[in-house]
Amino acid sequence: MRRILIHPIIKFNFQEPLVFTYNGRELTGFAGDTIASALIACGITTFHHSYKLHRPRGFFCAIGNCSSCLMEVDGVPNTRVCITPLKGGMIVNTQQGKGKF
Ligand code: FES
């Protein structure tokens, strides 16, 4: 698990696990996670591939200002997972190309 467990300022709540699905796999995050932080904690760092050259893209700005973390969440393409709070039961998929509406 790639996760900060103890921090001098921020308190983490690991009491409320949230199960979600990523590309058909069941993964677990925690209340307070974004989708991106939960994926990274599970070792997943490639969120989609660039449209033209198909280069891997992942966590970059972490504040919702780029397009590096776009994924399909509950059927909605182009969701910025770095700013989207994780909820239990979410279905998160790697997006192909520009995403289908
Ligand atoms: S990492 Fe830039 S918008 Fe999510």
Automatic annotation (TrEMBL):
PROSITE patterns in the record: 2FE2S_FER_1 (PS00197)
Ribonucleoprotein keyword on record: no
Pfam families: Fer2_4
E.C. numbers: 1.4.99.5
GO MF assignments: 2 iron, 2 sulfur cluster binding; glycine dehydrogenase (cyanide-forming) activity
InterPro entries hit by this protein: 2Fe-2S-bd_N (IPR042204), 2Fe-2S_ferredoxin-like_sf (IPR036010), 2Fe2S_fd_BS (IPR006058)
Enzyme class, UniProt record, top EC level: oxidoreductase
Domain of life: Bacteria
Keyword Oxidoreductase among UniProt keywords: yes
Coiled coil: none
Alphabetically ordered keywords of this record: Oxidoreductase
SUPFAM superfamilies xrefs: 2Fe-2S ferredoxin-like
Name of this chain's protein: Hydrogen cyanide synthase subunit HcnA
Annotated organism of origin: Psychracetigena formicireducens
